[in-house]
Amino acid sequence: MSDVLHRLAALLPADRLLTGPAQLAAYESDGLTAYRTRPLAVAIPETTDEVVALVRFCHQEKLPFVVRGSGTSLSGGSLPVADGIVIALNRLTRILRLDPAQRIAVVEPGVVNTQVSVAAAAHRLHYAPDPSSALICTIGGNVAFNSGGAHCLKYGMTANHILGLKAVLPTGEVVEWGGASREHIGPDWCGLFNGSEGLFGIALEITLQLLPRAECFYTVLAGYRTLEQAGDAVSAVVASGLLPGALEIMDALALEAATAAVHAEYPPGAEAVLIVELEGTREAVAADRGRLEAIIAGSQPIEMRPARDAEERLAIWKGRKSAFSAVGRLSPDFIVQDGVVPRRRLGEALRHNGELARAAGLRVANVFHAGDGNLHPLILFDGREAGALERAEALAGRILKRCVEMGGSITGEHGVGVEKLEYLPAMYNADELDCMMRLRAAFDPLGIANPGKKFPRAGAPALSQRGLHPLERAGVISRE
C-alpha cells in the first residue's frame, strides 16, 4: 500500500493528505463511537476537481474510499475501511449561488445545514430540513442519509428539497441530474441518489429548494403523566387533520438531561412532554390554534404551556435540540436508534419499548419526531462493563424488529450504515435485497464506494457492459 499512497500524494499538497497515526485518530469513527477503524489515509480536497481526481484515482487503483462531512452519522455511515481512504469534504463550503427569485441555493457538499438558512434569511427564505445536528452536519451528509428533523412532518425529508445534483460516480464519471425546477422528464435520479449512504458516489454541487419563512409561530409544550399518553396525544392531533410544523416528544430521562444541560424548564411531575408547533400566516395559525388547544386539553395533560414570545419558543427548542448530547450527562455511553412505527400505533410502540427496556435491565431515554412516528430511543450503558455494549445492541435490535412487526421501518433518517446490516432481512426478502445490491453494483462495479455499509461487504460483480446507463447494466431499466 505504500506505493499507492506515494501515487496518491501526487494529487494533493502534503498538508492535505493525512497519514500519521495522530492525524488519523480523529477520523477512526463517526457519531457511532462504538466502532473504530483506522484508514490508510485521509484526503482533504478543496475543490470539486480534486474530488473527481481522487475518485478516479481510487477507481483506477481499486482503492476503497469513504466520504465524510462532519462525521455526525449515528449508524457508522462514515466509518472508514482499513484498506481504504477517507475523502473529507469539510473545505468544500461555498454557497455557489443563492437566487431569491427562483428560491434556490446551489451549495457544495461541505456547507453546514444552518448556514443555508443564515444566508437566505435576508430574503425571508430558509432551508426547511432541520436535523438535531443542524449546527454542524453538512448538506452532503444530509443527502447521503436523506435526513429529516423536527419539521419533517410538514415539510418532508431532504429528498423533498433537492432539485438538482452534480455528482461523481465511483467510476469517475461526472453526472448532472435535475436543475433549478421541479419540472423534469425521465427518472428521478436525485431521488434515487438521496439516501444512498455514499454507495452511488459523491455529490459535488447540490441545488436546494428554499421556502418562505413562516410569518407566525405558535408553540405549545404539554406535560403528561405517562409516555403513552403523550403518544396518544400525537395520534389525536394527526387524526384531527391539523398539519403542525413539528410534533416532538421527550420522556422523563431526556427531560432530566436537558434540564441539567441547558436549564430547560418543564412541567413538574411530567413523565413526558409533547412539543407542538403551528406555523404559517397569522390567519392560518389563528384558525388552527383553537383546534389544537382543544385537542391538547382533551388529552388530559398535567399542564399545557404555550410559548408567550419568541424567547420562550427558542427556549423550548433549545431543550429539545440539546437532548441527544445532554443524555451524556446521565450515562458514559449510549446508542441512538431511529426505528419508525405508524403514527396510529405510537402509544402502543412506546409501551412495548418500555417493556423491552425493563426486561433488559437498561435505561432508555426517548426523544423523537412523533409527527412521522420516527422513534429515537437512546439506550444507556457503561462501555467499561463487560458485555454492556452487547446487551445494549441486543435491546436496540429487539426494538427495531418490533417496529417492523408493527408495520414500520428499521430506520427513518439515520440510515443502515454498519449498525443495522443484520436487520435488513426483517424488512426485505432475498429478491428485494438482490435487486438493491445489483443496483448498487451498477453504479459501483468495483464495490469501492463506502464498502461494508448498507449491505454486507462482498465481491462486487465485474460488470463489463460499457456505454450503458448504470440502471441498464443492472437490468433495472431498458431503453427498448
Widest β-sheet, arrangement of strands: 15-12-14-13-17-18-16
Mean pLDDT across the residues is: 91
**Secondary-structure content class:** alpha+beta
Q: What's the CATH C level of the largest domain?
A: Alpha Beta
Second rung of CATH, namely the architecture of the largest domain: 2-Layer Sandwich
Beta content = 15-25%
Helix content: 25-40%
Summarize the main sheet. Answer: 7 strands, antiparallel
Number of domains: 5
Structure summary, number of beta strands: 18
Q: What is the count of helical runs?
A: 17
Return residue spans where pLDDT drops below 50 for at least 5 consecutive residues: 458-480
Helices and strands in order, then pairings?
Blueprint: H1 2-8, E1 17-18, H2 21-25, E2 41-43, H3 48-61, E3 65-68, E4 85-88, E5 95-99, E6 104-107, H4 113-120, E7 125-126, H5 139-145, H6 152-155, E8 162-168, E9 174-178, H7 189-193, E10 202-209, E11 211-212, E12 216-224, H8 227-239, E13 246-251, H9 252-262, E14 272-280, H10 282-298, E15 303-306, H11 310-321, H12 323-326, E16 333-336, H13 346-360, E17 364-369, E18 377-381, H14 388-405, H15 424-427, H16 430-443, H17 470-473
Parallel strand pairs: 2-4, 3-4
Antiparallel strand pairs: 1-2, 5-6, 6-10, 7-11, 8-9, 8-10, 12-14, 12-15, 13-14, 13-17, 16-18, 17-18
Helix pairs in contact: 8-13, 13-14
Written description of the protein model:
Helix content is 34%, strand content 19%. It is an alpha+beta fold. The protein has five domains: 2-88, 2-Layer Sandwich (Uridine Diphospho-n-acetylenolpyruvylglucosamine Reductase, domain 2), CATH 3.30.43.10; 95-212, 2-Layer Sandwich (Uridine Diphospho-n-acetylenolpyruvylglucosamine Reductase, domain 3), CATH 3.30.465.10; 216-325, 2-Layer Sandwich (Alpha-Beta Plaits), CATH 3.30.70.2190; 331-423, 2-Layer Sandwich (Alpha-Beta Plaits), CATH 3.30.70.2740; 430-473, no CATH class. The model is unreliable at 458-480 (pLDDT under 50).
